[in-house]
Write a structure and sequence with these properties.
422 residues; mainly alpha; Growth Hormone, Chain: A; globular
Amino acid sequence: MARERERYPVSPRTVFSPYARLFAVPGSRAFSAAGWVGRLPAPMLGLGAVFLVEGATGSYGLAGAVSGTLALSYGLAGPQWARAMDRRGQGSVLRWAMAAFLVAGVGFVAAVVAEGPRWSWFALAVAVGATGPNIGSLVRARWSAVLDPQARQTAFAFEAVVDEIVFVVGPPLVTVLATLIAPPVGFLTGVVLGAAGTLWLAAQRATEPPLHPRDPGSPARRWSSVLTPTLLVVLVTYVAVGTLFGAIDVVVVGFAQAEGAPAMSGAALAFFAGGSLVAGLVYGLARVPGTLSARFVGTAVAFGLAAQLLWTVNSLSLLIGCGFLAGLTIAPVLVSGTSLVESRVAPGVLTESLAWTITGLTLGVTAGSALAGAAVDAWGARTAFAVPALAAALAAVLALCGAPLLGRAPARIRDEPGILTR
């Protein structure tokens, strides 16, 4: 046994010890688990809306437009909720938000099932998105408040893995519920799970980040304190990344139905997220060389190149394989971008700054859903894979073009190895 230990000195327990140390922090298991459940609406509501509206109308274009409207509203409202929580605390704000979220979610399903006016579908989709705070940014803000800089990359990588677990579990779940039971069941399950997880998170007041109430005597806050050059580069790159996310949901559903296996759409999306899950686990443990800026640009380029595999898809089995390989590049670009923004954030706007990164993703989801829905209707699902492939290529181009702006760090922060590059 001694010889075996000498030959294999690294055990799984040793390899994953950085993750184990995260959960030695009091309260971290509870707030991370609550955040996991609270994030389930992210993959379930968009895809659930596609199934719900397409089932009622037969139009992928309309389904993509409604789903994209929900995502757009969610993205624009997220930073406003985050700003309120930076000032007043997560718990009290989340309770009010979830009451409205439940009412809006049930109302949306009722309007579609009852074949209400189409404008009411869009109005209620706006209400659903606007009442759903971004749970991922809230959990990341809690980690940032309790960890030293060295541990934050691991925590952010873990949360990227949680995001991908959500996207592994959510699409198959909503697909099974929507196709084997009824389309409204998939959407409503996402609403209920999201409310339950968010209220669980709201109850955990001990781990909330410190409040930063606005001083009535101070001058009005300048937008430049939040929308820094670094955040803007990450945000516009994430718009392109999100465009792939929104497009891939619609195109995969259309492709699976065209292949005569609609229930396989959830499995295909789960493999896509599964690749990102694997990459997130590895990235959180790795000590990647270079500055945060270089890591972000490099991972964005890798993301753009890997997604070009989607041009080759002509069967479900090939889609699953290409999706998994392309998924391997997702978590690294998301973790590196989040870490870069967090390292440059001004005091008092951490949650809001992180929420803006999610806004970039959700704005992209909006565009991707609408573009892909129109592409599927006009060209067919196989040709419509051009939408997510081109979106990923655009993400790489935007990151490369924005690289010079990433060097403009505030004077108090230096993006150099060994200081805040983690």
